[in-house]
Specification:
single chain, two-stranded antiparallel sheet, 9 helices, 16% strand
């Protein structure tokens, strides 16, 4: 009896294991497919969250290096402009998916116009005249902004018409509202030597600056000789006006003007007097001629009558 019990105890586990194996064998393909699908969906979710094509950048440090190297165009919406002319921009992903990019908790990034120094007129132009707030822009990141880890220097393009874009830095420089950074700026020179996209942008800006200088617009505006005289100090002008020589010349001018007016009046009266006298002389001469003619005619008539008698 004891042997039979032991055999039965040995048989039961083997049956249980065989049942387990049969369950795995029956559902092996489903388990494998489920695992593959779960892993794939998890990987896809991670890719969509981390891929630059689907990701929304909330800080300039999140922008991958490839965007700098390949000069990849990024889209964004201007949310504001700082007092120093930096643009506060909400980044728009290259491919927008609502279930990946939530509209909640969006943090804009800061963009600085690369390679230029804005004038007060330039700042006024982008903050008030151009009305670019809440408008979409395209930009290319060039390099981190020196001394500001929360900002990046960028080449920014804005829409002027539905079909044309214009480089904002070039527009400001061409109007004379901004200047290209000077060669004395060490960071500027270093970036020119190591950054091709920055060097190319500066070449374009220098050409625009030459145009503005030749046209004499904005910060390159040149004074005319009249404006140069007008900018002379009032004190100097007043002292010149009150000098004895100027006062004597002014007094002499007034006298000469009065004498000239009097002479002109006398000549005018004399002319009219002579003209009227000439007219009356002519009329008197004509009348006298007629009288003499009649007298001669009558005299001749009398002589003829006497001869006939």
């Amino acid at each position: 009896m004891s042997q039979n019990n032991e055999e039965s105890n040995l048989v039961e586990p083997s049956s249980f294991v065989s049942n387990d194996k049969s369950f795995v064998d029956k559902h092996a393909s489903i388990i494998v497919r489920g695992g593959i699908m779960t892993t794939g969906l998890l990987g896809l979710g991670i890719y969509l969250k981390t891929s630059p094509s689907f990701r929304r950048f909330k800080h300039v440090s999140q922008i991958p290096k490839i965007f700098y190297d390949k000069e990849i165009t990024i889209k964004g919406i201007v949310k504001g402009i700082t007092p120093t002319g930096k643009l506060i921009v909400e980044h728009l992903p290259l491919v927008k998916l609502s279930f990946v990019n939530s509209s909640k908790g969006i943090t804009p990034i800061n963009l600085n116009l690369a390679g230029i120094v804005l004038s007060d007129k330039g700042l006024n132009m982008i903050t008030k005249d151009m009305n670019i707030t809440n408008k979409q822009i395209n930009f290319k990141v060039i390099k981190p902004t020196l001394g500001d880890k929360n900002c990046v220097d960028a080449e920014i393009n804005i829409k002027r018409t539905p079909f044309t874009n214009i480089n904002l830095s070039q527009l400001l420089v061409r109007k004379g509202f901004a200047k290209v950074l000077k060669p004395t700026d060490k960071d500027h020179v270093k970036a020119l030597e190591s950054n091709k996209s920055y060097s190319k942008l500066i070449d374009q800006l220098l050409l625009s600056e030459m145009v503005a200088d030749k046209r004499g617009v904005g910060v390159w505006e040149k004074q005319s000789w009249v404006e140069g005289i007008q900018t002379t100090s009032k004190q100097t002008i007043n002292s010149i006006k009150k000098s004895p020589l100027v006062e004597f010349g002014s007094f002499t001018g007034i006298i000469l003007k009065d004498i000239g007016s009097a002479v002109f009046f006398i000549l005018l009266v004399t002319y009219h007097t002579i003209a009227v006298s000439a007219i009356y002389t002519k009329e008197t001469y004509n009348k006298l001629t007629k009288i003499i003619t009649r007298t001669i005619s009558r005299y001749n008539t009398l002589i003829k009558k006497q001869i006939e008698k």
